[in-house]
Design brief:
The chain is globular, with a radius of gyration of 17 Å. The protein is an alpha+beta fold. α2 packs across α3. The chain contains 3 helices and 8 strands, in the order βαβββββββαα. The mean pLDDT is 85. Bound molecules: zinc ion. Residues 104, 106-107, 109, 124-125, 127-128 line the site of zinc ion (ZN).
């Protein structure tokens, strides 16, 4: 990603992650860490203002961790039926066990979360859609730093920012 960020301007209003449907790997596991040897189907729904605004079905397969994948199926904002398979990458943290990540089809990178912005068709990572955080819109100075720290600590950038800025 050489040079990305240099000369970047924030004159154009970006889409915020808060406006997107967000899928974390842990959502597929029903909240806890996703483990190997799992084959399951499930559904996720996003509600706003008391109603479901978006729903998807998924088929998860981590039976062979080296070939783990999840298929997401949903209807796009335009009513198109979409099915996409996301390869899951596995890492082995120092503390033991395994950890699964989405492989973003847009950039091929390992991601904990994928996002579907309003009026878009496909789930991709925050970088692919150049998404921002609501809370950072006014002061973008440290966006990149928070994002990089977040990646390093496996935390959302917003959480890193909250800690650094001290519990707003
Ligand atoms: Zn991406």
């Amino acid at each position: 990603m050489g040079g990305k960020g240099s000369g970047r301007t924030y004159l154009v209003r970006k889409t915020a992650v808060e406006e997107c449907c967000e899928v974390a790997v842990s959502d597929l596991a029903g909240g806890g860490p996703l483990r190997p040897g799992v084959r399951r189907r499930g559904g996720l729904a996003w509600c706003r203002g008391g109603g479901v605004v978006f729903a998807l079905g998924y088929a998860l397969d981590t039976a062979d961790p080296a070939a783990a994948a999840v298929r997401l199926g949903y209807a796009s904002a335009g009513g198109e039926e979409i099915e996409e398979v996301f390869r899951l990458e596995v890492t082995r943290p120092n503390y033991g066990g395994v950890r699964f990540w989405f492989t973003c089809p847009g950039c091929g990178r390992r991601r904990r979360k994928l996002y579907l912005p309003p009026r878009r068709r496909l789930f991709r990572c925050r970088e692919c859609y150049d998404l921002t955080y609501e809370s950072c819109r006014e002061s973008h100075r440290y966006d990149r730093l928070f994002a990089e720290l977040g990646e390093a600590l496996a935390l959302p950038a917003a959480a890193v920012e909250a800690v650094i800025k001290g519990g707003r």
